[in-house]
């Protein structure tokens, strides 16, 4: 109706109302004739007492099944109790092991602290000893150097005295009579062993160092060398964390393996 071209709107509305009225008349006629009536079954609800009785009869009938289910449940409960007991024992063992591990850890920590403290104490003692040895070495070096300087000075002085004595001896030999030469030479040879007069009583006199003086100088130089070695070994020992060292008399040196 509404899709036609050139129709008046009022005409469209009139036609729609006519169709609607015809449809309503058909529905009213059908309802009067009972076409829309439905056949409903007449079901009465079951009383609750009968439902409960039926359920009870079913349970009584299935008593054997309930017994089996009960046995299964008891078996499951026993297994669960057994598993729970095992788990409890495992938990107790785990707690015991944990306690032992904690004790071992505490003991190890305490031992480590003790070792660190001992090592630190030993290191401090070694450093103190090293400083003391270095101080003693410096003092000894100063004393030895002073002794060496003094001996060198005495050596120079003795050489000067020997040279002067030699000059006086030569002058005395030149100016003394022949009878007094032997006494002068014997006196010089007895007093100073480092003066030698060449043949004929004339010529230069050879001056030598005193053997005792040379021996003292050599001994002081050897002591100085040993002290230097000792100081070097002490420094090395301090860097090595306080390795014990000892004097090796056979090798005239220091033994790093200890005494």
From TrEMBL:
One of its GO terms (cellular component) is dynein complex. The keyword Cytoplasm applies. It is found in: Cytoplasm, Cytoskeleton. Keywords: Coiled coil, Cytoplasm, Cytoskeleton, Dynein, Microtubule. GO terms for biological process: establishment of mitotic spindle orientation; nuclear migration. The keyword Coiled coil applies. Residues 77-168 form a coiled coil. Gene3D superfamilies: 1.10.287.1490. This is Dynactin subunit 1. It comes from bird metagenome.
